[in-house]
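Postdoc handover notes: sequence design on the structure in folder B. Input tokens:
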């Protein structure tokens, strides 16, 4: 697209930088980095005033080395083809890094959702799904969308319902999309998953004493000053879990501007204020900042971009004072900004690792849909009985009884949310360790992003080499 940076090329620039640390043949690397299929389509929408508008939409499937492919759907007036391809590519690498057995995909509809009524959004979403069904770009074993920027549970429910209507009797139909409401085949913990995963990633990074010493920071999340850009699904939940984990939210930025309070903000109070007044500005006790951009340049320990890509460029990167950048958004750092951050000694925790919590829990939701049973339903009471037996044995051995409150807290057996959160925590911790180990092991790997890409390339390459190439 003329005049716009080509996000797909930017992702491939980073890919090539990481690929230099491998010895795979060029043809194999070319196959891994290319986008396998792109479906671009237009369809008509009848608006509430009777006029007809053409809607532009895409679905890109980046890699079919594992099936189904998976990735969110974005509603934004800024959507363009190479952006969807780039986001699909990031999904391939992300899934590989956290060992989620899917290829990468992404979808986009070029609309500003705020300009459409709920009925119009429903018609757009259902027609989009119908187009995907017609071309074989959706299905529990083919391609499984999820929420992204501008979409959420409501849209995912419409997609599931449309798919089921067009595929009557298909037993696994609910597995055609994730991020659904819990009451409609969704899984407990999916809504918060990306934010919670970001918290686990940051907590792991802050626990590394060598890395924290190099940054001039103490270990642990306690007291870390944090700035958040974007108070949507990802930004809100990441801010919540990090604050609860001990960080202080000193500034929050949204489209209309930013607010700052060095004593600390509460993301939910700010969210409610924005809901009531229509703006983040004027929040009691906080100072208004002239622009969103100004918040990014504040002196802080952790900076969390959680809005859109292309936030850090060669122009503003030299002015960034954060010690750690936690990439909640996909692609917030351009390839021109990365070397500047390296030179400034900033630790960038890369998107393809740290925002993978969403797809990880989407994978759990998909497993739940295929098994048709809630996690923990079969084992909760059994585990609770075992835990109670253990408590009784301890009481007998020590002669000291547990209080009713202790008994209820310890011997409860896991709920679905406990199991999902535990699976997410395990995934984020082990993937962080793998990425850090790759960086430490390979002389010359300059940062965690290249290390993460390197891990992803090895895993996708192994699929091609072990499965062979058809025919
Ligand atoms: P969302 O639509 O829920 O929230 C985005 C927020 O960013 C909105 O509140 C919006 O007003 C705000 N925003 C827009 N422009 C801004 C600007 N210039 N400055 C400050 N704020 C601005 O979207 P989301 O699902 O939270 O996604 C945000 C980012 O995280 C995207 O890059 C997305 O690809 C990525 N991501 C999302 C998920 C997920 O599970 N939803 C998973 C991984 C990555």
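Designed sequence:
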């Amino acid at each position: 697209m003329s005049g716009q940076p080509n996000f797909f090329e930017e992702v491939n620039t980073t890919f090539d930088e990481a690929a230099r640390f491998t010895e795979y043949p060029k043809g194999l690397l070319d196959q891994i980095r290319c986008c396998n299929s792109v479906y671009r389509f237009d369809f008509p929408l009848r608006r509430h005033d009777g006029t007809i508008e053409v809607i532009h939409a895409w679905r890109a499937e980046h890699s079919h080395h594992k099936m189904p492919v998976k990735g969110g759907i974005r509603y934004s007036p800024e959507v363009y083809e190479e952006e969807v391809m780039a986001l699909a590519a990031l999904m391939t690498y992300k899934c590989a890094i956290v060992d989620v057995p899917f290829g990468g995909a992404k979808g986009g509809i070029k609309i500003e959702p705020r300009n459409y009524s709920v009925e119009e959004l429903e018609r757009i979403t259902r027609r989009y799904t119908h187009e995907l069904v017609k071309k074989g770009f959706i299905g529990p074993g083919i391609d499984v969308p999820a929420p992204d920027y501008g979409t959420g549970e409501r849209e995912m429910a419409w997609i599931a319902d449309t798919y089921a209507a067009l595929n009557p009797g298909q037993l696994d139909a609910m597995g055609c999309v994730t991020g659904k409401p819990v009451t409609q085949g969704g899984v407990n913990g999916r809504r918060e998953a990306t934010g919670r995963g970001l918290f686990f990633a940051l907590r792991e990074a802050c626990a590394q004493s060598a890395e924290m010493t190099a940054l001039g920071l103490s270990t642990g999340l306690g007291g870390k000053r944090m700035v958040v850009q974007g108070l949507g699904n990802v930004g809100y939940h990441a801010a919540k879990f990090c604050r609860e984990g001990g960080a202080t939210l000193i500034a929050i930025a949204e489209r209309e501007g930013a607010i700052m309070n060095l004593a600390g903000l509460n993301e939910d109070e700010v969210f409610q204020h924005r809901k009531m007044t229509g703006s983040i500005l004027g929040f009691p006790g906080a100072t208004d900042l002239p622009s969103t951009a100004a918040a990014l340049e504040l002196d802080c320990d952790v900076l969390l971009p959680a809005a859109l890509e292309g936030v850090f460029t060669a122009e503003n990167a030299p002015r960034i004072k954060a010690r750690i950048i936690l990439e909640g958004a996909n692609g917030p750092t351009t390839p021109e900004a990365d070397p500047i951050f390296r030179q400034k000694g900033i630790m960038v925790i890369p998107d393809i690792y740290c925002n993978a919590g969403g797809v990880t829990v989407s994978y759990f939701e998909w497993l739940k849909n295929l098994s048709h049973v809630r996690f923990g339903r079969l084992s909760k009471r059994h585990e609770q009985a075992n835990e109670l037996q253990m408590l009784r044995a301890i009481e007998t051995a020590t002669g000291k009884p547990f209080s009713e409150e202790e008994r209820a807290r310890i011997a409860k057996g896991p709920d679905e949310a406990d199991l999902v959160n535990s699976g997410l925590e395990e995934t984020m911790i082990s993937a962080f360790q793998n990425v850090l180990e790759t960086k430490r092991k390979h002389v010359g790997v300059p940062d965690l992003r290249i290390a993460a890409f390197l891990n992803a390339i090895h895993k996708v390459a192994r699929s091609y080499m072990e499965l062979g190439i058809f025919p």
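Context for whoever picks this up: The longest helix spans residues 416-441. Don't rerun without checking with the PI first.
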